[in-house]
Design a protein that fits this description.
Number of strands: 8
Radius of gyration: 16 Å
Largest sheet: 4 strands, antiparallel
Order of helices and strands: EEEEEEEE
Shape: elongated
Low-confidence stretches: 1-6
Distance between the termini: 42 Å
CATH class: Mainly Beta
Structural class: mainly beta
Mean pLDDT: 88
CATH superfamily: Immunoglobulins
CATH topology: Immunoglobulin-like
Number of helices: 0
């Protein structure tokens, strides 16, 4: 028996973010955008990781972003210039809340690769 289903996830762009100098010396900045294509999810957590999936320190306005269905959100990511060599991925992960979780709910993680 073959079972097919539609897998909806959120989107995050750009796929390959570019960093530029921020207004503070020694700090780099990039701009990201999330598009919420999931009707069952309203919160997304932002993370930055190296090639071994270790967390890299970063700053953004909100590490958890609240978004309505079919909404877009833009945010800036700030990192220390010295961490740029280690930074490999900027990710957004859907956060399922207790009142919206169904037995078949799946969290999604979308990552952009830093060159």
């Amino acid at each position: 028996m073959l079972v097919c289903g539609i897998a909806n996830a959120h989107e995050m762009t750009p796929t390959y973010p570019q960093f530029s100098n921020a207004f503070v010396p020694g700090v780099l900045k990039t701009n990201m955008e999330i598009f919420n294509k999931r009707e069952d999810v309203s919160y997304y957590e932002i993370g930055a990781f190296d090639g071994e999936w270790n967390a890299i320190p970063f700053v953004t306005s909100y590490k958890v972003i609240k978004m309505e269905y079919l909404a877009h959100a833009q945010f800036d990511i700030y990192i220390k210039a010295e961490d740029k060599k280690r930074l490999m991925y900027i990710c957004s992960k859907s956060k399922l809340t207790k009142d919206t979780v169904k037995s078949s709910a799946i969290a999604s993680r979308i990552c952009s690769k830093v060159k």
